[in-house]
Structures are given as structure tokens and as C-alpha cells.
Design brief:
The complex is a heterodimer. Chain A is α/β, with parallel strands linked by helices. Chain A folds into 2 domains: 2-170, Up-down Bundle (Four Helix Bundle (Hemerythrin (Met), subunit A)); 173-364, Rossmann fold (3-Layer(aba) Sandwich), CATH 3.40.50.10470. Chain A is 48% helix and 11% strand. In chain A, strands 3-2-1-4-7-9-10 form a 7-stranded mixed beta sheet, sandwiched between helices. In chain A, helix 6 (83-97) runs antiparallel to helix 7. The radius of gyration of chain A is 21 Å and the shape is globular. In chain B, the strands form 2 sheets. A 7-stranded mixed beta sheet of chain B has the order 3-2-1-4-7-10-11. Chain B has a 4-stranded mixed beta sheet with strand order 8-5-6-9, with helices on both faces. In chain B, helix 15 (293-309) packs parallel to helix 17 (342-356), helix 15 (293-309) runs antiparallel to helix 18 (364-395) and helix 17 (342-356) runs antiparallel to helix 18 (364-395). Chain B starts with 5 loop residues before the first helix and ends with a helix. The chains are: A alpha/beta, B alpha/beta. The A-B interface holds A 1-3, 6, 265-267, 300, 302, 304-305, 307-308, 338, 354, 357-358, 361-362, 364-365 and B 396-397, 399, 424, 471, 504, 506, 571-572, 577-581, 583-584, 587-588, 591.
């Protein structure tokens, strides 16, 4: 990734390209701030232009590969579909429309499509993780080799389509696993809006657990407000905090629940900006930090520090105009090292951070 | 100090093979095992109590309780890290980490090799056992103890009868005397033939050499006088011991290095001593001309390759067995020159495994060709290509304007810097170095010659220079399965300082250097360098205050070669399997073994 960055030395384009991943999230979460629309409109040119440029640069060898982005965009607009699922669906569509006649051809075609998807939005970890996972599945499944090509192809398509269900099922599994951790009378701190965490809390509420939730506001797109809204609808007592009040209220918190954009090889997570500081505060006050994440978010990345990631930017609405000559940190996410996390609740089970790498090794080596 | 040692010993991972030894020994002796084994209650307390004892002490009266049972000794030994094993081969004793390897090899082997085992030694042993009355008369002695005393007596006798040590070497395979093909042939016969043949010889020779490796050896404890004497008798390299040994490290081999070089060089042309290429490599180790984990390992493998090329199976021998024995003798020679590194142990284990797994149907030339290609493949895949992969991973972690700190002169780190420079990254290097080897200077010279901007400092200044660094790149001699990094002494300090400054520490290490052992401190397994190296200070007479340090018995100099860095201080391991947290080492060890060594 860094090599890519080195190859296109963009001499700092005035507004940094806006992360498509976070754009999608914002759309899904229906958070619209006053000048978000303006920014989005301005930004809309970027990814579109990018994709067009990519198309122009490498003429699609087949309609399947060319259409992968459109297919992906179609799927990712669906509110319940995670980005990874959208990617799998798009790749499955590539297989379906492929005119390849051998497994090898199909593989090459898929590789091209997934590379294209990945480069289309380099900021999305789950997208690239899902592409890798699917490629792995195609190249690694040995029994495919012994079948007729058509049978193998239809099996791949079928598997791809199942993936969507698996993703939904993963959330259910995680919610079930995490019920042991939520006990009566506890106070849970959540950060931002995460579908998995919401599922966890929903299930806990339907199990008649009595607990209280503190929601951070989740600036800049105020995803925490949406979270609190949904929780209140389930008649769970909720309190909203501004992001800077985390340390202030940490002593009444019993546990921290966060989602993750990606789980990296060290066992740490990459998540919405602010997760790291919450984890640090929780760690220093000896509160457990639980991460709820589906296993398709496991990515073969290993950031050493905060700056060691592909930057993902998103616009920030300060409510008042930013004085001229002042820089704004627009990074959308941060990296929480594994030593500040207690457990990862995944559909593979409840894992300590160090197990993530073991799972990844088994998956990719 | 003796009191201190046991816990580290038992935690040093030697335990597991020893358990296997028990199984092996009892089954091969095919004896009354059922009796003592199921007596489940005794072993546990036994293990506890012996564990608290010094590993090198001979087990005192506790055993008599078990004596009525026919073969109690192996049982108790299983819990007792380093008491002399029931049947130990003198040749293998100096093995440091290799002994585990031998275990595994012997385990992988089909039953036949167990045959030579009941040779005269075991027979006499068995005779003793068969007379329970004689046993009960002196119940204070465990089997191990009896053996130790026997050996001491024999050693004394041998020393008395034959004034020179050389004379007693006659039996040993690596005999110093121009004892020749005939002896070695005879010797090999005793290995393979059933006990009767060796029994005849038993009367005239002390039995050291017959005790083939039939079980795992605990690591040689050099503070155990009897065994040291024994080991010395059969060594080619006539090492003189260093004086004023440091108490805590008495269990490690301590030699005055380098002094025997002329002596050994003169022996170069003696026939039947050692294959010349192996001999050459041994001398290079001894003189320090080859150093660095990869270089040593490659040199050793190439020497073995050549030796295999020149090898021809003696009459009435099977290549698989004889060549393994041959390699073992080479290895023990190399160990005398310098203790093996863990990476070399792994490579030897790989080679021996390949040899034992050779199909018997292969002709000799085919077998040799296959082994040679295996060695080439190992060097290529596990070292050369692995380094390339590591470099390609590591370069992604170097950003423009980084300041990279390194310690010593690890070969793979140098390759990383070179490659990053070629790719056009802008960075600066801080080379931290330390006495006595000052290897960093070589690295510094090569980097500066390539036009990389460098800073050079000694480890004393590491806390000062660390705040400039943005990444710390370290090499490793080995990575143990708890994530501990075993590396050049001083690495731990650098890693800890970096940790304190919040600088990420990246350890680059090829996966063939991983080892399943767990080690918690740098004491129980380490290597001692030449103490004179620290006493010598550049700057002439006036600054050498330690000139006659050996004369002062209150003065001990310690030149430790390695230390361990706990995994907490390591942010990332870069291996040929990618970038991993140190907690994933066991997974790699598992995968690696399955895929490549135990095929």
C-alpha cells in the first residue's frame, strides 16, 4: 500500500480524497450534517473519477471485470449489507458473468477484479480482507480441482451467495457469545455506531438483562446519536456523552464495547477515531474492553503505530468556519494496539488478541 | 547458586524430550515397567522434590523407597532434569541444543537401532539389577549415582594406567591417534551388530563408546566433573579450560578460545580424522572467521554436502544408519569448536531426518544426490529466499525520513537497509555497537560506502540516541516458542530502551531459526566467549589494567555471547511467513515442522 502511495506522489491535493468506506457508512447510518452534503458533493468527483481513470487505464478484458465496481456499488448501498459482503457479492457476479473456460482463467479474472475493487477504495479494510478471503477460497479449495469446470463454477457462485447469510449469522453468533459478559446492573460504554454491538445489546435487552449504556457522541458524523436513538427505542437506559467526557465518566463504566473496521494481525483493531483513547482510558482504569467483530474483518495488516496505515479521511463539520491557515486532522480512524484490548468476540469464538494472528496464519499460510 | 538453577533448567524446555526418553528406555529394556509406572502417586511428589534439588546433584536417599520395584531409576530420572541418563553416549554429551534433535531422530527411526543398545554396558547393568540383594545392600545409591561412581573409577583407572590421555582415546571414533580404518570399522560393527560382538570387546575397553544415543541427552552440564572428564577424553579439540570461572555460568562450556589453532592445523592431514571440509569449517568457527547465524549454518551445510559427496558406505553397512552416525560425529566435532547455534541444530535435525527417511531401495549414488539436493534446497528456501521475503516485508515498514536503529551487524538487516536504499527511501541509520566484537563497524563501513547516512555509537549511549530513532531493527539468533528472542548480548537492552521510548522494535528472523524450547532467562543456556576479549583494551599498556586478571582468584570475567529479550519488548517479528506478533511463534513452529521437516 505504501508502495502505491510512493508511486503516485500526489503533491497533497488540497482536500485529501475522502474515504469511500466512511461515506458509505455515513449513508447507511443516515447521518447528514449541515455541510456534509456540500462536502460529499465535492468529494463525489473523486472516487468516480478514480474508477473512470482505472477503467480507461486498463480496458476490461471481459465485461465481468469491468462491472465489478458497479456491482459492488449496487450491493453496498443496501443498508444491512456489510462492505465485505458487498465485495463478495460483486466477485460472485464476476464469476457468474465470466466467460472463462478453465479454472486458471477464472482465477486470473477474479484476481484482476479483486485488485480493482481493492484499489478503488484502499481505505476499507474489510473490503480488502473480504477480497483476499474470497480469493483464498477460490485458489485454496482443493476439491474444486477434481470437478468439472461448470460444477466448480456454480459451487463458487453458490458459496459467494451464502457469504451474505454467513455475515448476518456471524452477528447473531457474536451476540450470543457476548451475553455471558453483560450482567445485571452493569454499565456499558459504547463508541460510535456498530451493527454488531447494537445486535449484542439488543439481544441482551431481549434476554431481560438490566443494564445501562453510555453512548459517546461519535464526532464528526455523530454516529453515537443514532446508536442512542436505537437503544432508547428498545427501552434501554441510555446516556449520551460528548467524546471528551469519556475519562470523566469512566469510573461508572463496567465495560467498554466497541466494534471494529478491521482486526489486524497483531490482534489490535482499526476503528473509528476515538477508540484508541477510550481503550487507553479504560486500560488505565482497569475496565475491560471488548471488541465485537466478524471474522471476515481479520486482515493481514500490521500497523506499527497510528501513522502506519493507509490514511482514510473524512470531512469534519465544526459548526463554525475553520480559521484560515489552520490545519484540520481529518483522519477517520485510529489503531488500538492489542495490549489495550481484553477480548475479541468473534464468530470463531471469544478470542484473546494474540489468537487473531494464529487464525490468520491458518487462513493464509 | 546451585539452589537457584533448577527452576530455569526445568523450564528450559528440556522436559518434554526427557519424558519421551522414559518411554523409550523402559520399552527397549522391556522390563518390569508395569510395576513402577502405574504407581501414579509416587511420581508426582517425586518430581516435586527432585525438582527442588540441584539438577546436577545425584539423587540422594529419596529413591530407596522405590528400590524394591525393579527399575525405579528411569522413573525418577524423568522428573529430574539433568541427572546422568541411564545410557549416555560420551560422544553426544557436548551437544547443547542438539540433543533434542537426536532424540527425535532416534524416535523416528524404526526399531532396529534399538538393538545395539543392550550391549555390554546394559548387560552389566542388567546383571546388577538381577541381583536385588546386592542392590538392597547399598540402597543409598540410585542407578545414576552408581553409574557416576563407576565412571569416576574407570576414569581414574584409565588415567592411572595410561599416562597420556591419548591412549584412552583409542576407543573413540574421533580418536586422535592415527588409529585407522580398521578401528573405525570395528567400531561401526559393534554399533550395528547384536550385543554378543560388542560384549567381547567390553572386557578390554571402557564402555563409553558403546553407549550409543538411544535416548535423549540432557544438555551437558559442565560443572559435572565426571562427565566433563569423560567428554574430554574423546575430544579432538584439546580445549584448555578458562580460569576463574564465573559461578553462575559454570554449567556452560568454558574454554580459552583460539589457542589450539596451530595444534589443530597441524593435524589437518592426519588420515581418518574428520572430513577435511568439516575440519576446515570447524577451525573457522574456532578462530571466529565465520560468525553470524546464517553464515555458520550455510558453511556447515556446505561442508556436510561435500562430506556426503565423498562418502561411500562401508561394507555390511546401511547408508541410512552409517551416514547418520557419521554426521553425528561431525557435529560433535563442530560443537567442540564452538557450541552450535539453534539454527544449526534445526538444520542438522532436518538433514538427519532426511537421511533416516531415505527409502532403502535407493542406490548409494541416488541417495547421495537426493541428500545433496535436499541440502541445496534447504539453503535456498530457508535462508536465501527467506531473507528476500523478509526484506520485502520489512521495506514496507520503512517510511521516508525514518531513523532506523540497529544493533550489531545482522546480515538480514543489512540487506533490508540496502534494499530500502535501492528502492529510494530516504532514511538514516543509527548503528549501535558494543565491545568486544565491534561488528557494527563493518556494517557501518558498508552502509556508508553505499551512500546511506549513518550515525555510529556504542551501546552506552543507546538511551541518548534512542529518542531520535523511529524504528528499531534487530536480528536474532533464534526465536523461542514463548516469543522470546535469543540474540547477541546487548539486544535486550536496546529493545528495552526502545520500548521505554515507545519506538517499535522489529525483529527479523528466518523461520528455520525458530525453536520450540521456552527459555525464561539467559543463564541456563548461553555461550561463553573468551574472557580475554574483554580484558584487552585498545590503547596500549597504560590502559590495560586487567592484564594478569587470571592470577587473581577473586576476579572473574564474564563474556556472555547471547541474551534473551522477552516478547513484551518486541512489537513485531518479520519472518518468511510474513509479519507476525511474537505470540504466533508456536503456530509457525507447528506449521513449519509439519510441512518441511517431518514430511
Amino acid at each position: 500500500m505504501e508502495a502505491d502511495a510512493a508511486q503516485n506522489p500526489n503533491p497533497s491535493p488540497v482536500p485529501p480524497p475522502i474515504s469511500a468506506y466512511y461515506q458509505t457508512r455515513a449513508e447507511h447510518h443516515a447521518v447528514v450534517s449541515s455541510d456534509w452534503l456540500a462536502h460529499a458533493a465535492a468529494a463525489a468527483a473523486f472516487p468516480g473519477a478514480d474508477a473512470a481513470a482505472a477503467d480507461a487505464a486498463a480496458p476490461p478484458p471481459s465485461p465481468g471485470v469491468g462491472g465489478v465496481i458497479e456491482e459492488f456499488n449496487f450491493w453496498r448501498r443496501k443498508p444491512e449489507a456489510a462492505e465485505a459482503v458487498a465485495a463478495i457479492m460483486a466477485l460472485a457476479a464476476v464469476i457468474r458473468s465470466s466467460r472463462a473456460t478453465t479454472m486458471m482463467e477464472l482465477e486470473i479474472e477474479l484476481k484482476k477484479a479483486s485488485d480493482k475493487l481493492k484499489s478503488w477504495d484502499a481505505t476499507s479494510i474489510s473490503l480488502s480482507a473480504a477480497c483476499d478471503l474470497f480469493m483464498r477460497f477460490v485458489t485454496r479449495t482443493s476439491h474444486l480441482e477434481h470437478e468439472k469446470f461448470d460444477a466448480a463454477k456454480s459451487r463458487l457462485i453458490e458459496r459467494g451467495e451464502k457469504f451474505g447469510e454467513i455475515s448476518l449469522k456471524a452477528r447473531k453468533t457474536i451476540a450470543m457469545l457476548s451475553q455471558d459478559f453483560i450482567y445485571d446492573g452493569c454499565t456499558v460504554l459504547v463508541h460510535g455506531y456498530s451493527r454488531v454491538v447494537l445486535e449484542v445489546l439488543k439481544l441482551a435487552a431481549s434476554n431481560r438483562k438490566i443494564f445501562r449504556v453510555l453512548c459517546t457522541e461519535g464526532r464528526p458524523d455523530r454516529t453515537g446519536l443514532r446508536m442512542s436513538n436505537e437503544l432508547a427505542a428498545l427501552s434501554i437506559p441510555v446516556k449520551v456523552l460528548i467524546d471528551s467526557a469519556v475519562a470523566y465518566s469512566m469510573d461508572e463504566v463496567d465495560m467498554v464495547f466497541v466494534g471494529a473496521d478491521g482486526v489486524v494481525e497483531s490482534g489490535g483493531i482499526i476503528n473509528m477515531m476515538g477508540t484508541y483513547q477510550i481503550a487507553l482510558v479504560a486500560h488505565s482504569m482497569n475496565k475491560p474492553v471488548y471488541v465485537a467483530a466478524e471474522s471476515y474483518k481479520f486482515a493481514r495488516l500490521y500497523p506499527l503505530d497510528q501513522k502506519d496505515m493507509t490514511p482514510a479521511h473524512r470531512p469534519i463539520d465544526f459548526g463554525v468556519p475553520v480559521p484560515t491557515g489552520v490545519e484540520v486532522e481529518t483522519s477517520a480512524r485510529d489503531y488500538t494496539p492489542p495490549q489495550y484490548l481484553t477480548l475479541l468476540l468473534t464468530d470463531l469464538g471469544v478470542l484473546t488478541p494474540s489468537v487473531v494472528s494464529d487464525e490468520l496464519i491458518q487462513l493464509y499460510l | 547458586m546451585d539452589i537457584r538453577r533448577p527452576p530455569p533448567r526445568s523450564s528450559s524446555g528440556g522436559v518434554e524430550p526427557r519424558f519421551r526418553q522414559v518411554g523409550f528406555v523402559t520399552s527397549s529394556e522391556a522390563e518390569p515397567a508395569p510395576g513402577p509406572a502405574p504407581a501414579a502417586s509416587p511420581p508426582a511428589p517425586d518430581g516435586l522434590s527432585t525438582g527442588a534439588r540441584s539438577p546436577v546433584m545425584i539423587p540422594p536417599p529419596l529413591i530407596p523407597d522405590h528400590l524394591p520395584a525393579p527399575a525405579p531409576a528411569p522413573e525418577s530420572q524423568s522428573f529430574m532434569p539433568s541427572s546422568p541418563p541411564p545410557a549416555s553416549s560420551s560422544r553426544l554429551e557436548p551437544v547443547s541444543d542438539l540433543d533434542d534433535d537426536d532424540v527425535d531422530v532416534s524416535w523416528a527411526r524404526p526399531p532396529p537401532p534399538a538393538l545395539p543398545e543392550p550391549n555390554k554396558r546394559d548387560l552389566t547393568e542388567a546383571k546388577n539389577k538381577d541381583a536385588p540383594t546386592s542392590l538392597s545392600q547399598k540402597p543409598k545409591l540410585s542407578r545414576a549415582e552408581r553409574r557416576a561412581t563407576q565412571e569416576a573409577q574407570r576414569a581414574a583407572k584409565a588415567a592411572g594406567l595410561k599416562s597420556t590421555a591419548m591412549a584412552s582415546d583409542v576407543n573413540t571414533k574421533k580418536s586422535k591417534q592415527p588409529k585407522t580404518a580398521k578401528t573405525s570399522l570395528k567400531k561401526d560393527v559393534t554399533q550395528v551388530n547384536p550385543p554378543v560382538a560388542s560384549d567381547k570387546k567390553a572386557s578390554e575397553h571402557p564402555p563409553d563408546k558403546d553407549r550409543k544415543k538411544d535416548g535423549p541427552q540432557p544438555r551437558m552440564q559442565f560443572d559435572n566433573v565426571h562427565r566433563v572428564v569423560k567428554a574430554k577424553k574423546c575430544s579432538v579439540v584439546n580445549q584448555s579450560e578458562a580460569q576463574n570461572r564465573v559461578e553462575l555460568f559454570r554449567h556452560l562450556p568454558q574454554y580459552a578460545h583460539g589457542t589450539q589453532l596451530p595444534d589443530l592445523e597441524s593435524k589437518f592431514f592426519q588420515p581418518d580424522l574428520m572430513h577435511p571440509s568439516v575440519y576446515k569449517v570447524g577451525l573457522q568457527y574456532l578462530s571466529g572467521n565465520i560468525s553470524g547465524g546464517n553464515a555458520r549454518c550455510v558453511a556447515m551445510l556446505l561442508a556436510f554436502r561435500e562430506a556426503i559427496n565423498d562418502y561411500s558406505t562401508p561394507a555390511e553397512k546401511i547408508l541410512n544408519r552409517d551416514l547418520t552416525a557419521k554426521i553425528s560425529s561431525f557435529v560433535s566435532f563442530l560443537i567442540e569448536c564452538r557450541p552450535l547455534s539453534i539454527s544449526m541444530g534445526n538444520a542438522i535435525r532436518f538433514l538427519k531426518n532426511r537421511i533416516t527417511k531415505l527409502p532403502l531401495t535407493l542406490s548409494e549414488s541416488e541417495a547421495k544426490a537426493s541428500l545433496q539436493s535436499d541440502i541445496d534446497r534447504f539453503i535456498n528456501e530457508k535462508i536465501i529466499v527467506a531473507d528476500k521475503v523478509i526484506v520485502s516485508h520489512a521495506v514496507t515498514k520503512i517510511r521516508d525520513d525514518d531513523v532506523l536503529l540497529t544493533y550489531g551487524s545482522p546480515s538480514v538487516i543489512e540487506m533490508i537497509f540496502d534494499h530500502a536504499h535501492e528502492v529510494g527511501k530516504r532514511f538514516r541509520v543509527v548503528v549501535v555497537d558494543s565491545r568486544p566484537n565491534l561488528e557494527g563497524q563493518g556494517l557501518l563501513r558498508r552502509l556508508v560506502a553505499k551512500g546511506i547516512s549513518c550515525t555510529y555509537t556504542h551501546i552506552n549511549a543507546v538511551s541518548y540516541i534512542m529518542h531520535e530513532a523511529t524504528r528499531v531493527f534487530l536480528g536474532a539468533s533464534s526465536v523461542l516458542s514463548n516469543g522470546t528472542v535469543y540474540s547477541r548480548a546487548g539486544t535486550a537492552s536496546v529493545a528495552m530502551v526502545a520500548h521505554a521510548f515507545g519506538v517499535p522494535v522489529l525483529v527479523c528472523c528466518e523461520a528455520y531459526k525458530f525453536h520450540e524450547r521456552v527459555q525464561l532467562d539467559s543463564i541456563c543456556s548461553n555461550e561463553l566467549g573468551d574472557p580475554d576479549a574483554i580484558s584487552r583494551v585498545p590503547g596500549g599498556e597504560s590502559s590495560s589494567h586487567l592484564k594478569n586478571w587470571a592470577d587473581n582468584e577473586n576476579l572473574h570475567l564474564l563474556n556472555l555471547k547471547y541474551d534473551i529479550t522477552p516478547s513484551d519488548y518486541v512489537s513485531m517479528l518479520i519472518t518468511d511467513y510474513g509479519m507476525l506478533p511474537p505470540t504466533s511463534v508456536p503456530v509457525i513452529v507447528r506449521e513449519y515442522r509439519r510441512e518441511h521437516v517431518w514430511i
